[in-house]
Design a protein that fits this description.
6 strands, elongated, about 20% helix, Fusion Protein Consisting Of Minor Coat Protein, Glycine Rich Linker, Tola, And A His Tag, Chain: A, Domain 2, two-stranded antiparallel sheet
Length: about 110
């Protein structure tokens, strides 16, 4: 499950656009990493990322803010840092280009 939070500002990148990007890029959200060896070894928790967009909605930069994953946090973090540059967002237009993206890994066993 992925949740979105925005940078503290009076005007921020719209949550609706973040939700759309999450939906459209879900296959690049590293969710396949939750289950290591089926349900015997789970990677659960959350990664918060600082994302900066270019004027077209492409990811210009991504930086890890925090990693709270129970098993192999470095594997999950590396996957997200490789995947996020391929995500596409709505062009920021007159909104700030910076946002915080929270990616949650939840157990479904």
């Amino acid at each position: 499950m992925i949740d979105a939070a925005t940078v503290d500002a009076q005007v921020s990148y719209p949550n609706e656009w973040i939700a759309t990007a999450i939906s459209e890029n879900y296959d690049r959200a590293c969710q396949q990493l939750i289950y290591k060896h089926g349900c015997r070894e789970l990677r659960t928790g959350r990664v918060d990322l600082d994302v900066t967009l270019d004027e077209h909605g492409s990811v210009a930069s991504v930086r890890t803010r925090s990693v709270k994953i129970t098993r192999d946090p470095d594997v999950v973090e590396r996957c997200l840092l490789r995947a996020l540059p391929r995500w596409r967002f709505h062009p920021p237009e007159h909104y700030p280009r910076e946002l915080i993206l929270s990616v949650s890994f939840a157990d479904r066993c």
